Amino acid sequence: MGRIVKKFGGSSVGSTKKILQVAKRILAEKQPEDQIVMVVSAMGDTTDELIALAKELTPAPYQYPREMDMLLSTGEQVSIALLTMAFRTLGHPAISLTGALAGMKTNSVHTKGKILDIEPQRVLEELEKGNIVVVAGFQGADALGDPVTLGRGGSDTSAVALAGALKADSCEIFTDVDGIYSADPRVAPDARRMQEITYDEMLEMARLGAGVMQLRSVEMGKRFHIPIHVRSTFTTQSGTMIREAYTMEEKEFVIRGVAHDDKVAKIAVLGVPNHPGIAHSIFSALAQAHVDVDMIVQSIRNIEKNVTDMVFTIASDDLVVAKPIVDQVANDLNAIAVLIEEDVAKVSIVGAGMLGSPGIASRMFGALAEAGVNIDVISTSEISVSCLIKADKIKTAVNAIHAEFFPSKPAA
Amino acid sequence: MGRIVKKFGGSSVGSTKKILQVAKRILAEKQPEDQIVMVVSAMGDTTDELIALAKELTPAPYQYPREMDMLLSTGEQVSIALLTMAFRTLGHPAISLTGALAGMKTNSVHTKGKILDIEPQRVLEELEKGNIVVVAGFQGADALGDPVTLGRGGSDTSAVALAGALKADSCEIFTDVDGIYSADPRVAPDARRMQEITYDEMLEMARLGAGVMQLRSVEMGKRFHIPIHVRSTFTTQSGTMIREAYTMEEKEFVIRGVAHDDKVAKIAVLGVPNHPGIAHSIFSALAQAHVDVDMIVQSIRNIEKNVTDMVFTIASDDLVVAKPIVDQVANDLNAIAVLIEEDVAKVSIVGAGMLGSPGIASRMFGALAEAGVNIDVISTSEISVSCLIKADKIKTAVNAIHAEFFPSKPAA
């Protein structure tokens, strides 16, 4: 027997027909003694439709975040009621619980809530009665009992956090891909599905651009030691297990994957007088505006005049906020110029194994050189190496690096 | 200043345009010191659409009443969020509260819940902050916190009960008619709007077929001494005030109104041996099946054989349940025959004043005789007289009686 939390996203429950399919599949896979908790999102386009309704009243409905949560939290409430009815029409006892009823306690930051605590007594009681418990993802309630939604990727986070609070054996995230790949299969056709990946590697992959899992849910899994099984809604085969450490000897490859991110912008502040505190001047101003800075390189421009260049990257979405701030600071610092490049992208390799394997980075650089890809900026972490390159070379780069580290034909 | 609960039904909030109209109207009428609580239903057809979704899963979704409540309670949650946004876009502070957050405590009879208690602290706190408080009608939560809907007419009941708990000055029910009329204006064109009516008269009118207000909400108003103002969504003129006693001297008319009900069926059990307990045999079997029996007449068929006829009426909707029960009991009692008539209707006069005015009933019978309407069965209460007649005579009957008791031209 196992206690398993299973999360299905909005597209998996986009119609009553799909809802019935999900219920049938779960019952077909369920062992008699299994305790199943379902975490589901709002049906298909429901959230967008509700937002459109609110926009008929005001062009900027998110200026009323509490009311948006009151509105949007109905989306999951509809899907949990319908999925529960589906289980019951198929003959299995089931009960629906909103985030609040499932004990998801959040802060009061409406539309971007964080889970503070989970009090899962009701869920446990309903499991003990033999119910499949169907919980609304993406939502909880604050100290007043008001509904609060969790923001982007919130349903995954709900599922993993609930699995932690229930001391579940695992949390299964059903999605439209069948696992975590060694590179984005849309870019690298030879990418192979991994059977396992560690939390740290997955976090690094996600941070570096791999889109399957949200950072927060992986962090939650790591914190509560919940193995996360990322698998397909459409097939019954197993996908990728994200866990603390490998259970299998998978020493074949020293890196776990190639990540890439093309939503990057590069900013260069040129000719800054090199006195203490210049890095602080620039980056504290950006931090105050909630702009995350990624790769940073400081290089000497003119050693006699003690003048330096400061180069860094940010998410391209943040450029509109960052540009006036950087311009102002550059002006204050008497810099020569600010250059911005938007046609850049970042390619990275990730793997805990690289700690014990020297020469990994140089193999990456070699593969890029051989493919004719110029490297602009390099940064490294304990378990990753990243290179900034021209955006139009990203497909070439990902495939060259993937071929270097995953030379055989895909096994999956 | 006044503390006023205002209830708007689903058709009044059927679109964001109508929601905005409601908000504008409320703000235009509001005095600076007024404390306003809005109670609203689900938008237009929302409830029907949600029921249709559930029916895609099962032909009989109400077999899962708890899940239907989980599903249907989202309807009002959407409308309270949108109406609150409308108030805020118009510049007035407002906050939405579900039934649960407004402290509506119900029993656990899902889809037909009853309000057990109201704990209105949150509503009072939000009023003190200067908010218009927008509460979801038709719903509350049971001891577990699970959503429970109140069944037919539930929004009116929510509004009046909440007004009672808040010790409000009045409860305004906005509807598609502009008040309570002396007869149904669709049947009797000379019907006039009443300025006032007592709770007891309104209860009797509702019991006898007048459709504007649900019995439960009037009972609630009577219990908590809350004046209920029934008025039009579409105009700003005042409608009819339902209260304990008249504030004005309205002695002009001895009766308050003519009610009629054409959803009536007559059942006659003929030739029953007249021994003690036969009434009990028939009516206890019907009571067990939740069939309400209205007019009852027992008459001697054959005094020598001591054989009697038992005639009574029920709501025609109950006929499908009642018929096999009556047939069985008639068979057990050795009755001669069971006759059922569906082409019958009931016309009634209501007025507290008739207690002190003899001859009222005979004036009614006279008016019917003059109009050529035959009376089949008569029943009376302290403040009403009802006659069962042929259904095709109902319009003639209502108008004849109305002309007898309200002879002048309508003043409204």
What does it look like?
Two copies of one chain form a homodimer. With 412 residues, the first copy, chain A, is an alpha/beta fold. The first copy, chain A, folds into two domains: 173 residues, Acetylglutamate kinase-like (Carbamate kinase, 3-Layer(aba) Sandwich), CATH 3.40.1160.10; 148 residues, 2-Layer Sandwich (VC0802-like). Chain A contains eleven helices and 18 strands. In chain A, the strands form four sheets. In chain A, strands 3-6-2-1-9-11-12-10 form an eight-stranded mixed β-sheet, with helices on both faces. In chain A, helix 1 crosses helix 3 and helix 10 packs across helix 11. The longest helix of chain A has 25 residues. The two termini of chain A are 28 Å apart. The model of chain A has no long low-confidence stretch (mean pLDDT 92). At the A-B interface, helix 1, helix 2 and helix 3 of A face helix 1, helix 2 and helix 3 of B.
Keywords, separated by commas or semicolons:
homodimer; alpha/beta; Carbamate kinase; VC0802-like; 2 domains; eight-stranded mixed beta sheet; 18 strands
Number of domains of chain A: 2
Radius of gyration computed on alpha carbons of chain A = 24 Å
Largest interface: A-B, 38 and 38 residues
Strand content of chain A: 25-35%
Q: In the CATH scheme, what's the topology name of the largest domain in chain A? A: Carbamate kinase
Strand ordering within the main sheet of chain A: 3-6-2-1-9-11-12-10
* Mean pLDDT score of chain A: 92
Summed up, the helix count of chain A is: 11
At the first level of CATH, the class of the largest domain in chain A is Alpha Beta
Multimeric organization: homodimer
End-to-end distance of chain A:
28 Å
Low-pLDDT parts of chain A are none
Helix vs. strand class of chain A? alpha/beta
Task: Please report the total strand number of chain A as a whole number.
Answer: 18
